Amino acid sequence: MIVMSVEDLRNIIREEVGKAVEKVEPKRDLPHFLTRQEAQELLRVSESKMFELMGRKDFPVCREFGVKIYTEKLFDWIEQHLPEGGKKRVFRSIS
């Protein structure tokens, strides 16, 4: 049985909620779909690299109403393609 004080439990919850908020905050400022230029700025890649990424079958591009990138799926794609043990980058808002 694990015994801890209420204050210890509050600190743990506060810390975990803080971590979750840090992950969500930058994404909240972004639109649901990004243009190629917006995604390029967000990822900080060259124009040629962005075209290369958008040509990949596994890259989250929507072509239903012009070429747009699904923002949430882009973050999922990034998570899936991080190198094992690699550092996670924090993305800034583009607005």
3D structure, described in words:
The chain is mainly alpha-helical and 95 residues long. Helix 2 (36-43) packs across helix 3 (47-54). It has a three-stranded antiparallel beta sheet with strand order 1-3-2. It contains four helices and three strands, in the order H-E-H-H-E-E-H. 52% of the residues lie in helices and 7% in strands.
Output the keywords:
95 residues; mainly alpha; Arc Repressor Mutant, subunit A; 3-stranded antiparallel β-sheet; 4 helices; 52% helix
Task: Tell me, rounded to a whole number, the average pLDDT.
Answer: 82
Structural class: mainly alpha
- The low-pLDDT segments are none
How far from one another are the termini?
Answer: 49 Å
Our count of helices gives 4
CATH architecture, by name, is: Orthogonal Bundle
SSE topology string: HEHHEEH
Taking the sheet with the most strands, its summary is: 3 strands, antiparallel
Strand content: 5-15%
Proportion of helical residues: 40-55%
Radius of gyration: 18 Å
The CATH class, by name, is Mainly Alpha
CATH topology type? Arc Repressor Mutant, subunit A
DSSP strand count: 3
Total count of domains:
1
Instruction: Tell me the overall shape.
Output: elongated
Strand order of the largest sheet: 1-3-2
Question: Summary?
Answer:
With 95 residues, the protein is mainly alpha-helical.
Layout of secondary structure:
Elements: H1 6-28, E1 33-34, H2 36-43, H3 47-54, E2 61-62, E3 68-70, H4 71-80
Antiparallel strand pairs: 1-3, 2-3
Helix pairs in contact: 2-3
